[in-house]
From TrEMBL, chain A:
Residues 22-203 form the Spore germination protein N-terminal domain. It is a lipid-anchor. GO terms for cellular component: membrane. Keywords: Germination, Lipoprotein, Membrane, Palmitate, Signal. This is Ger(X)C family germination protein. It comes from the Bacteria. It comes from Baia soyae.
TrEMBL record, chain B:
It is found in: Membrane. One of its GO terms (biological process) is spore germination. PANTHER family: SPORE GERMINATION PROTEIN A2 (PTHR34975:SF2). It holds the Pfam family Spore_permease. It comes from Baia soyae. It is a multi-pass membrane protein. This is Spore germination protein (Amino acid permease).
């Protein structure tokens, strides 16, 4: 009886335990796996679509059997769309047409159509970043054509197409080929005053799958172009996100040697006059050889390294020219370095306008660590 | 339990008061100071530093920490002059004169009331801050009143424990709260960029001063040592212990600020209201079993917020009990009686903007007060040669020794 008051107090506390209000049964939620943002004829109005997997229609989900795929009650997912001047307005239309509340915590991909990306993305990003449910690890991408249609592509190996895209993006970024741009990184880039040119992966829906088309380049919130060549993208990513780079084929006297990079490290130096020097150290291995070169000799390896450096350097020079003369966009995010290391110079110019006139020098240092299990 | 919890000095026996002198070991005091400082505000503190101090906030956080360390060392020296006494007991001694003892009591009452109000504000604000964070990020449909009340009920229940129990609670929880600080190294390793820390030294003198002061706010809560020093087992070590505690806190606070600057950059950070949680969302852990480390971190933040609020409530309750000579068994009534005030204080602000404005204003006022008052007390104690006579000190030390060994 001595503890009775305590027991009464504890019993009274139980109903107050936080969390009860937010308790939702797993089947009482609609799990959004991806959203697509499309433009409409009216520049102020956008169409937003959400992809919702239907668990009992997915193989192993309790429904039994292979589903037809695609939109509709018989498919493994449902597409709901809404239009509005704002993200919230369009989302409201979706919410009122769905039977359960939407849950964005499992969302994997945000697809933005190229057309809408060219009109601007900030208003959508603002709404998304305010939603705490949304993971910062999801992938925002730009897609060629209508983003809603990209959500409806039938992929033979996956019932939910967004799982295919996610897998593709994840392995592509791990391999250092795709840009490692998550929502968190995009929001950071958009928040950095010196980084006025965010980038995103650029993809195209094809028959039975998706094709990676390089990276979409933004000036502020609007897409201004894309970098599509494999070598060009690798060069951008080497500088921007320290990604490893691409395979280089070195022509030799009687054949060729393939150099495969596995890591790269860049150092960016900004001089007081604003000129930028980018030093990139690339380490890799010889993956293939058809020439008669004896790789066990140090001078041969050095010669190959020099050739790889020269090839990288030439490609990078062309890329810098392309970014300054044609795109007029700082795809390397050098503005952030100029702002950080030469703030006086940065304040004296308008980086967006003056970027094409900035002298940029690149230097490569290639190290070949090994050449496989063959001794020569 | 520390053996001397129920020991009673001859003086306290007459007033039927339990003597808690010698209740806390040096390590417990060290941990208690750290955990009283690192509370819910750290969820938002790096953003506040970025907004107030700009890029220079990174190194100014270290400077502030070193200044506070020096200051706390001085405060501890002040407490050492009055071995076995809490500030409630020694402040009147500093001010009183032989003829007019009421002057000492009058001024002391004023100072103690100010400290009590400051702590009440801090408790209310911390509870509200933590509830806002959980409601925004985790429990959007749960009424904020519920999260506030749940946290307050739990902390109030713990706050009227004896000092030795509070010491052990802090000691037990300390290793757990270090986990987010270790995890942030992983996040920095994966996502940090040195370039985000620059350009440094862009502030003028005024900006630097503002930066140091705003960083100093991160150390609010160190005032608990005014009281806990009175419960120390080894008062002669207290200055070193408290300085070490502040240095450790500096490392924890500065590393958090630097880590978030490295990942977000100063501009993105200053716009992110709950940067501490978004920070952990930036990575997908490869080695950990859990997929979303922010949920795990928020779980630990519940512990951090709870223990900081409990410590502040404990100090406040003990201060009131000592000031009004409340009996030990009635301490709990004081603790429960204060709960509506904390709740009311937490609910005063209508919206989050109003809350942050008030939080900053009161924190600045309270921080300046808790810096200025001890300096005045320290100088007066030296000038007026106020300290417990060595005989009395020895006698008390002996009592403590007996109490501990029993």
């Amino acid at each position: 009886m001595r503890h009775l008051p305590k027991i009464i107090i504890l019993t009274l506390i139980f109903p107050l335990l936080a969390g009860c209000w937010d308790r939702r049964e797993i089947e009482d939620r609609l799990y959004v796996s991806a959203i697509a943002i499309d433009s409409t004829e009216d520049d102020d109005i956008a169409e937003i679509s959400v992809q919702i997997p239907i668990p009992n229609q997915v193989v192993g989900g309790g429904g039994g059997g292979q589903a037809e795929g695609g939109k509709g009650p018989s498919g493994p997912f449902e597409l709901l769309s809404g239009v509005g001047k704002t993200y919230s307005e369009a989302m409201h239309q979706i919410v009122v047409s769905s039977n359960d509340p939407l849950f964005f915590g499992n969302m994997q991909v945000i697809m933005i159509s190229e057309e809408q990306a060219k009109k601007g993305i900030e208003r959508f990003m603002d709404a998304i970043k305010r939603t705490s449910e949304v993971r910062r690890q999801l992938y925002p991408i730009v897609v060629k054509g209508k983003a809603k249609d990209a959500l409806n592509v039938k992929v033979p190996s996956e019932e939910i197409p967004v799982n295919y895209i996610r897998g593709m993006l994840r392995s592509g970024t791990r391999n250092g080929i795709f840009a490692d741009i998550t929502l968190g990184q995009l929001l950071i880039d958009m928040g950095l005053p010196g980084c006025q040119f965010p980038i995103m992966n650029y993809m195209e829906p094809t028959e039975g799958g998706y094709k990676w088309d390089g990276i979409a380049v933004f000036k502020g919130e609007k897409m201004v172009g894309a970098i599509q060549g494999r070598e060009d993208v690798a060069g951008v990513l080497q500088v921007r996100t320290n990604q490893k780079g691409h395979v280089v084929i070195v022509p030799r006297k009687d054949g060729m040697i393939a150099f495969h990079p596995y890591s790269s490290k860049r150092k960016i130096k900004v001089n007081p006059d604003g000129s930028v020097v980018i030093n990139i150290g690339v380490t890799g291995l010889i993956q293939e050889k058809t020439s008669t070169d004896d790789l066990s000799k140090t001078e041969v390896l050095q010669d190959v390294s020099d050739q790889v450096s020269t090839i990288y350097q030439k490609q990078m020079k062309d890329l810098v020219n392309h970014s300054q003369k044609e795109l007029k966009a700082d795809v390397f995010n050098l503005g952030e370095y100029v702002r950080a290391y030469q703030p006086k110079f940065y304040k004296s110019i308008n980086w967006q306008e003056d970027y094409p006139n900035i002298p940029i020098t690149t230097k490569y240092h290639v190290t070949i660590h090994r050449y496989g299990i063959s001794s020569d | 339990m520390t053996p001397n919890n129920s020991s009673q000095s001859p003086q306290s026996a007459s007033s039927k008061k339990v003597d808690h002198r010698g209740s806390l070991s040096s390590y417990q005091i060290y941990v208690l100071i750290i955990l009283s400082i690192i509370g819910a505000p750290l969820l938002n503190f790096p953003r506040f530093v970025a907004a107030e101090a700009g890029a220079d906030g990174v190194w100014l956080s270290v400077i502030s920490g070193l200044l506070v360390t020096g200051f706390v060392y001085m405060v501890s020296k002040l407490c050492q002059r009055f071995t076995g006494q809490t500030f409630v007991q020694f402040i009147p001694e500093i001010f009183e004169t032989k003829r007019m003892k009421w002057i000492g009591k009058g001024i002391a009452s004023l100072i103690i009331i100010c400290f009590a109000l400051y702590w009440m504000n801090q408790i209310s604000f911390q509870v509200r801050l933590f509830s806002e964070a959980t409601n925004t990020t985790l429990l959007p449909k749960t009424p904020i009143e519920v999260t506030i009340l749940t946290l307050l009920l739990a902390s109030t229940f713990a706050s009227y424990s004896r000092p030795a129990v509070i010491g052990m609670l802090n000691e037990f929880l300390f290793p757990i709260i270090l986990l987010p600080f270790l995890l942030q190294l992983y996040v920095v390793f994966k996502k940090g960029e040195w370039v985000h820390l620059f350009p440094l030294l862009q502030s003028d003198w005024r900006g630097l001063g503002k930066g140091i002061l705003s960083n100093g706010l991160g150390f609010s809560g160190f005032e608990v040592l005014f009281l806990v020093m009175g419960y120390s087992q080894k008062v002669e070590h207290s200055a070193k212990v408290s300085a070490k505690a502040i240095l450790t806190t500096t490392v924890l606070l500065s590393s958090t600020i630097i880590a978030q600057y490295l990942v977000f950059g100063v501009d993105a950070l200053s716009k992110n209201l709950w940067s501490a949680l978004d920070f952990y969302k930036e990575v997908r852990p490869e080695l950990l079993v859990i997929e979303r480390i922010e949920a795990f971190v928020l779980g630990i933040w519940v512990v951090i917020a709870f223990i900081a609020i409990t410590n502040l409530q404990f100090v406040l309750v003990r201060t009131i009990c000592e000031a009004f000579r409340v009996k030990e068994e009635q301490t709990k009534y004081v603790a429960w009686a204060l709960l509506p005030f904390f709740y009311g204080g937490a609910m005063v602000s209508e919206n989050i903007s109003d809350f942050f404005t008030k939080f900053q204003e009161y924190s600045y006022i309270g921080f300046v007060f808790s810096i200025v008052v001890p300096i005045v007390l320290f100088l007066l104690a030296i000038i007026r040669r106020k300290k417990i006579p060595s005989k009395k000190k020895d006698q008390k030390g002996e009592e403590n020794h007996h109490a501990t060994s029993s």
